[in-house]
Amino acid sequence: MKRMAQTKNDFAAAQNALNNDIRERSFKSIYLLLGEQAYLRNQNRDRLVTAALGLGSVQEAGDCFNYSRFAGENAAADRIIEMAQTLPFFSEKRVIVLEDTGFFDKGANDAAALSEFLPVMPDTTMIIMSEAKTDKRSKLYKVIDKTGFVLDCDSIEPAMIGKWAAGLFKKAGLTISGADLAYFLDRTGTDMLAVNAEIEKLICYKMEDGVQVPAAVTREDILTMGQAQLKDRVFELTDALVRKQADTVFSIYMELCSLQTAPQVILSLLQRQFLNLLRVGELSGKMPDAQIAQELKLPVFVISKRYRLVLSGFKKQKLVSLIDRMAAIDTEYKSGKIDAGAALEMLMAGAAEL
After folding, report:
1. Are 23 and 147 part of one and the same domain?
2. Hey, which of 257-261, 299-303, 309-313, 325-329 has the most confident mean pLDDT?
3. Nearest to 32 by CA among 95, 111, 98
4. Of 84, 110, 154, 234, which cross-links 35 as Cys (Cβ 3.0–4.6 Å)?
5. Cα 171 from Cα 75, distance rounded (Å)
6. Are residues 29 and 73 in the same domain?
7. DSSP letter at 124?
């Protein structure tokens, strides 16, 4: 009986069906993991690989004779078909992983050949395709939907992401209230790779002082971590401005804008970073880093690992010029002649001219 196409409300059912395939070792010939949720695609890809090949971890796959991976431009239908027709070596399955191949793009090369091959592929081979975007109108998609299994990783609902995130905290021995979890996810968004990364940072932050578990993650913790990350990004923006790396400056600026960071906050942090850079340069050679850190009320590693790296190869006059320009722009902003957004853009444009 043909499996019904996955709808937005049945991700859990589809995931359970895939889990059942793994548990019973009753694999389909091809699995298509699609969508922007790379975390889910990668997780399910690795689980399928290890289960089909009987490996302890996905890292072992690289040394396995029965495992092949093709990605991007390296994925050609003739090579994939040749490998798929090769019998596995002392194993039940040969596993082929295809990632971001572009086969589903309109008029994509090799899509027709794969569409013809998949229905007659030897049952000793299993193909796992992981694609951020697919054209569900394409013949290749329809063939996979009919003969294999499709898991739409973008159809997961926000409530499930919240439940999953709470589970990650719980696994680490941390609790978080429903309100604070909602606040956390509102700041991070719903991309599970990004959420997972932010949760790992929060876990490390809570554990670095030897906190006893179970412990609660509070809104104050979330704000503290957010402020620390903002300072890190603004420092990277400072570095890029000094080095005249226009693309990096623009990229970081757009990221900060997407996070709805107020321009006046960025301006204030930039001004502080430039003044600190100048002060570190002036004190270098006069006192050790530990004393400079104490003077500026900063961690020693910030002085030795960050500020010195930015200062290397740059003359004091360049920093002085940037600080003077920032002071002039700041005056215009505070006098009401320009708004904070315009002030920030003037600073970035001016830095490129120095």
Report:
1. yes
2. 325-329
3. 98
4. 154
5. 38
6. yes
7. T
Tokens describing residue 162: 């919240």
Going by the DSSP 8-state scheme, the letter that residue 304 receives in this structure is I
pLDDT tens digits, 202-216: 888 777 656 666 788
Residues 126 and 246 in one domain: no
- Contact criterion met (CB below 8 Å) for 156 and 16: no
Encoded amino acid at 233, one letter: R
- Give which of 63, 119, 115, 71 is closest to 96, Cα–Cα: 71
C-alpha atoms less than 13 angstroms from C-alpha of 6 in its C-beta half-sphere = 27
Give the number of domains in the chain.
Answer: 3
Phi, psi of 72 (to 5 degrees): 55, -130
Going by C-alpha positions, the residue among 188, 311, 168, 136 that lies closest to residue 239 is: 311
- Residue 177: which H helix or E strand, with range? none
Would you state the pLDDT for residue 299? 67
Dihedral angle, C-alpha 100, 56, 26, 41, nearest 10 °: -30
In Å, how far are 184, 231, 289 from 221, measured between CA atoms?
10, 15, 29
Residue 190 sits in the same domain as residue 282: no
Q: Please give the single-letter amino acid code of residue 232.
A: D
Q: Above 90 in pLDDT, residue 322?
A: no
